[in-house]
Amino acid sequence: MNVLILRTKTIFSAGLTIGLYLLTFVGHAQALTISGEVSKPLTLQSADLKAMTHTDVTAKDRDGKDHTYSGVPLVDLLKQAGATLGSELRGENLTKYVVIKAIDGYEIVFALAEIDPEFATRTIILADTVDGGPLAQGVGPYRVVVPGEKKPARWIREVKSIDVRFAK
């Protein structure tokens, strides 16, 4: 009887530990942080991003087919965090860049001017849906989509953070 109770407690304890780990991991994957050279660092949850105005872009993915992605323009997220944009993006502020990190450690870089509509003609988005449905597991919950790039190497998957930095 004591052995059965001990085994049950061990199994329950292991299950609880795994459950808490998965809850922590999934919860962390849903949060997006924006930090660095911004006046209002942010931590946004999935509900925060879903409530923001979305933009649709159609672009070719690695499969060579056009897909329609929907998400928040990267510039809108940076504005909300208080990044230097628009008429303030001049002089030394033009040396600022954005590092976007994925859960697996993959990182990409954009010059801040590449994201600002006063400098660039394309809209880079943080997508949360593709072709009307959620992003696939291993791609979402968030993915950067960069229309017009010849290679989707900066279409980073499983985005977890955005960091604005000075090149100097």
From TrEMBL:
| Entry protein name | Molybdopterin-dependent oxidoreductase
Ranges for domain Oxidoreductase molybdopterin-binding come to 31-163
